[in-house]
Hints:
CATH class of the largest domain in chain B: Alpha Beta
Mean pLDDT of chain B: 88
Shape of chain A: elongated
CATH architecture of the largest domain in chain A: Orthogonal Bundle
Oligomer: heterodimer
Number of strands of chain A: 0
Bound molecules: adenosine-5'-triphosphate, magnesium ion
Protein name (chain B): ABC transporter ATP-binding protein
InterPro entries (chain B): AAA+_ATPase, ABC_transporter-like_ATP-bd, ABC_transporter-like_CS, ABC_transporter_ATP-bind, P-loop_NTPase
Pfam families (chain B): ABC_tran
Largest interface: A-B, 28 and 31 residues
Keywords (chain B): ATP-binding, Nucleotide-binding, Transport
Mean pLDDT of chain A: 87
Organism (chain B): Haloechinothrix aidingensis
CATH topology of the largest domain in chain A: MetI-like fold
Amino acid sequence: MAITVTRDRMAPVATRWTGSGVAVGSTAVVACLLAWELAARGPLADAPFPTVVEIVRSLLGLLATGAFWSSLGQTLTTALMGLALAIGAGVVLGVLLGSVEFAYRSTRLIIEILKPIPPIVIMPLVILLLGPSAEMGVVLVLYGCVWPILIQTVAGVRDADPVLIDTARSFGFGTAQRAVQIVLPGAAAFIVTGVRIAGSAAFVIAVVSELVGGAPGIGHELFVTQNAGLYSEMYALVAVMGGVGLGFNTALHAFEKWMLHWHPSVRGEVTA
Amino acid sequence: MTEVVTEPNVPQQAERRLTIEGLCKTYGSGSNAKTVLDGLTFDVNAGEFVCIVGPSGAGKTTLLKCLSGLLPPTSGRACLDGEAITGPPEKLALVFQEYTRSLMPWLTVEKNITLPLRNKGVSKRERGERTREALEAVSLADSRRHYPWQLSGGMQQRVAIARALAYQPEVLVMDEPFASVDAQTRFELEDLAQRVRAQFGVTVVFVTHDIDEAVYLADRVVVLGSSPCRVREIIPVNLAAPRDQVRTKADPAFTELRSRVFELIRKG
Lengths: 272, 268
Ligand SMILES: Nc1ncnc2c1ncn2[C@@H]1O[C@H](COP(=O)(O)OP(=O)(O)OP(=O)(O)O)[C@@H](O)[C@H]1O
Ligand SMILES: [Mg+2]
């Protein structure tokens, strides 16, 4: 029994960003910014195209205002609330549809039809119902995020190992206990992938609901600066959104790894 | 089991833990119907170690699923302490043939063992005690914080056994539990099965297709024939206890018994 076992829950995993990857990536970013700066000073000097220096100055100005932070907070709240509701609805519905064959069959077509409809298409309807409000944004994020989570949950539930289910039954687990303690964790890999796909869309949809639909938030600020011709502020906002989007995705990846530390796709080596 | 005395026409009921009466199982229906079990009848007494042998695909797993209430029989019945088994009985624990798949990879060894106890309403303190005792019985006390996938196949099988032990069943049903481990581990696990039976006083129903293993472990060997599966013969094994890998297997009586079982299986 002299078997050495990795004690770490998180054995070293091939990370997406290796040291040299970061170096190359940052060099490319700097190069792009330089090219921008040169273009804005030279050939595009007359276009509504501010220099990087001007954008950075506007950005610093923005960061100093309370209004900016409250609208950013508003957008993040919309995105996270919509995502949380989508996770709740998607997982609960997914477990139901995935475990009841009749429910699965009767809803499959409806889901296939609704899934490809982009949230922006249903925006007019939601605005009609809720007005250009934060709730409208939340509903759009919920709508845009629920499909991948629902579909992934259904797939994960249907993929549940019958041996594990029988094991639970033989130990007298009830239906609810099996759903929560066996089926759900077993489907976690599928669900978390769904959440990651949905999550990267959540922030974008929140911004669009503000930009196009007029809900309060950073997207609405963007609309305002654009109309007022405040181009360096506008680009500063765009830069902020890029940064927040990146942060969102990084957080989602960390979440995935944390949730699935036991899963073959995340854990280090596989012992037979 | 005190009321048995009031039933004079079934005097042996007191000792019988499991009774299988004319058990039939047909998978599918219509033209796809396939009869797997065809009228099995045998008993298992309290505290007895019964091995079931039969060719691969005979229906051994199907039989165990009926015994453990996971699969309803098509006709006939299986009874535990005189009551027909219609769902998974609390007094019975099953160790699956596919043990790697029967452990939850997202839970540590310890949590895998305590989860069924928690659902059963066993107190936290007792859960801890039972888990410690069961892990010690299978000599895995050091691995309780590991995840199943960090352990070798033989260790995972021992976790599955420990989980069944901690459940404190009166009947322990095992489906080819040692089929996919190396010979050395297999001998260790066989002796573990013996110890467990002596230590916990459980009734054991043990499926295997290894004839040596069956004769070595059993008080009685139930030999099944295939397509469809029927009881071919029930062979009592009267070898001295405790059994020993070297001494018992060198006993002429052992050799004779294994030849008999072998002949029965070969005849198909
Ligand atoms: N769910 C099922 N539906 C239809 N047929 C099944 C099902 N499960 C098992 N069978 C069939 O029943 C027969 C007996 O299967 P079973 O798994 O009980 O055999 P076994 O004796 O346990 O075999 P092994 O020694 O290989 O484990 C096989 O022919 C198998 O194909
Ligand atoms: Mg089998």
